[in-house]
Fold Capsular polysaccharide synthesis protein.
Amino acid sequence: FSDYRVVILDYSNLHNFLPKDFYDESLYENFSLPKQADAIRAAVLYLYGGIWLDADTIITSSKIKYFFENPSNFSIFSSHIGVLKAKKGSIICFNWFQECQKRILNYRKIKESNGDLRQFEAYYYLGNGPLNPNIETFKNN
């Protein structure tokens, strides 16, 4: 896949891809790294399109080429969101990052009012939580 540019995204270059105020700053203060990555992947895929591979992804089959060649606006390799492909401006990624922002702001509001934060502990809070219903909406369209 020599026509792909590989970007290793981390805090040192994140600002090159997401404006500093793209998400409320509480994302980086209040959420675990996996949850931050979920929100960031939604935004980066919406803004730029491309393929997202989690750093711990190991490709073990040549069948992955069919995933890379899929012309759809959004593709997911399995229900685990470590491997995603989207075209720039994907409506699924747009809805996903919008829902992430709502959830981040809701968390901040509850935290600032000393409310119960247990509802936000699910690992999928910014990943599959907002993504799965969104996928279902567009699945057959």
Observations:
- Helices lie at 26-30, 33-48, 64-69, 91-112, 128-138.
- The chain has one domain: 14-138.
